[in-house]
């Protein structure tokens, strides 16, 4: 099977006309030295559902690239590390990948706090890091883009928070309660939400900070209800989101449960016992029968999984696109895998890549290392265990490609 995404590698020896059934030609003999790609995301623990999904996305991309010749005849190899959603484990993994494994570049991090703990490792070694999943705003703010080796494929939380606040206002709601976990992700999400709600003159009537592993939030929801909250907005990851969904139902809270992309994790629905029905979340991608690229990707992913299910379509698709983008940048550098060369190539991207999430033409610039802009995100919802568009008009417009503004 060949990669149906159909990218062209300009000025490269491999020509991959996949969409039309083209044949790849290797520029180097069989047995050429593999190109090692670092990968670090949680494979165990409370964040494993989207960490494993990210790994599956990376594996599928590498498999398809290798089937059409790899990088100039060199097979791509994924060197994987499990950070367990632990900041110290993530930092250690970053050091190992760069100094011991000698990977060409690294794709990694699902958790904001883990990414932030490791950023200086990549920066000090001038090693390119592409973040496919973690969304905390500070990740691409730690260093000025002009000198940073950190890029991101996921919609940052400042975009998601603005989108959520806008939707709260659209619904005519005036009072909101925020539930945020006690992590760096929760910290940055809460700060972003407070700012955006204030811009829309929406009152923040109750704030709850909860620990990872919290298993009872009923009293907190009841307190939010008593404070007059008309919506619950959550910033967290993992099982706690399902706990909040169950507590909302038990408290008979009639307002919407809203949040960033993490509310779309399959584990949230499964652990909520169906109480996540109607929950609203920001999405970069949703299952869409009218989008050929996405349907093809999901079919190929099901085969890759042996018929299994993904914990997160977003994590898998964004990571899949990340591998393709950096590989294209490597062709643009004519094989120079140094951080400065890849950084310059991504900032001055010469290809148009028809990805799964969207079509990337100029995803980055010397002053902007985030691939997403506000016009590229959607509002999703859980309906009978399936993710879909919250607004029918969005579903009708889904076939239109949204490019970065």
TrEMBL record:
Residues 34-370 form the Leucine-binding protein domain. SUPFAM superfamilies: Periplasmic binding protein-like I. One of its GO terms (biological process) is amino acid transport. Pfam families: Peripla_BP_6. The keyword DNA-binding does not apply. Residues 1-26 form the signal peptide. The keyword Hydrolase does not apply. Keywords: Amino-acid transport, Signal, Transport. It comes from the Bacteria. PANTHER family: LEUCINE-SPECIFIC-BINDING PROTEIN, PERIPLASMIC BINDING PROTEIN OF ABC TRANSPORTER FOR NATURAL AMINO ACIDS. Belongs to the leucine-binding protein family. This is Leucine-binding protein domain-containing protein.
């Amino acid at each position: 099977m060949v990669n149906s995404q159909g990218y062209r590698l300009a000025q490269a020896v491999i020509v991959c006309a996949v969409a039309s059934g083209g044949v790849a030609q290797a520029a180097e003999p069989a047995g050429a030295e593999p190109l090692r790609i670092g990968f670090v995301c949680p494979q165990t623990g409370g964040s494993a559902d989207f960490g494993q999904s990210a790994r599956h996305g990376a594996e599928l991309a590498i498999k398809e690239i290798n089937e059409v010749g790899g990088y100039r005849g060199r097979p791509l190899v994924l060197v994987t590390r499990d950070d367990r959603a632990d900041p110290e484990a993530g930092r250690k993994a970053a050091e190992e990948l760069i100094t011991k494994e000698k990977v060409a570049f690294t794709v990694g991090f699902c958790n904001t706090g883990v990414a932030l703990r490791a950023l200086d490792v990549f920066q000090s070694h001038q090693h390119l890091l592409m973040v496919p999943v973690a969304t905390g705003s500070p990740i691409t703010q730690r260093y000025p883009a002009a000198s940073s080796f950190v890029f991101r494929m996921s919609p940052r939380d400042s975009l998601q928070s603005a989108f959520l606040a806008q939707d709260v206002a659209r619904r005519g709601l005036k009072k909101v309660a925020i539930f945020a976990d006690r992590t760096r992700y929760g910290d940055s999400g809460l700060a972003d939400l407070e700012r955006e709600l204030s811009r829309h003159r929406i009152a923040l009537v109750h704030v709850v900070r909860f620990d990872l592993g919290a298993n009872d939030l009923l009293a907190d929801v009841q307190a939010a209800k008593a404070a007059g909250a008309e919506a619950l907005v959550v910033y967290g990851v993992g099982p706690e989101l399902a706990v909040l969904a169950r507590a909302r139902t038990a408290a008979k809270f009639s307002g919407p449960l809203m949040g960033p992309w993490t509310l779309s994790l399959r584990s949230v629905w499964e652990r909520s016992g169906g109480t996540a029905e109607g929950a609203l979340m920001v999405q970069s991608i949703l299952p869409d029968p009218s989008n050929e690229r996405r349907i093809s990707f999901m079919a190929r992913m099901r085969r890759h999984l042996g018929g299994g299910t993904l914990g997160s379509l977003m994590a898998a698709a964004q990571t899949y696109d990340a591998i393709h983008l950096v590989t294209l940048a490597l062709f643009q550098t004519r094989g120079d895998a140094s951080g400065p060369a890849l950084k310059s190539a991504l900032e001055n991207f010469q290809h148009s890549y028809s990805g799964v999430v969207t079509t990337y033409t100029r995803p980055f610039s010397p002053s902007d290392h985030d691939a997403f802009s506000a016009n590229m995100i959607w509002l999703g919802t859980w309906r009978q265990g399936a993710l879909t568009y919250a607004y029918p008009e969005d579903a009708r417009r889904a076939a239109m490609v949204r490019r970065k503004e």
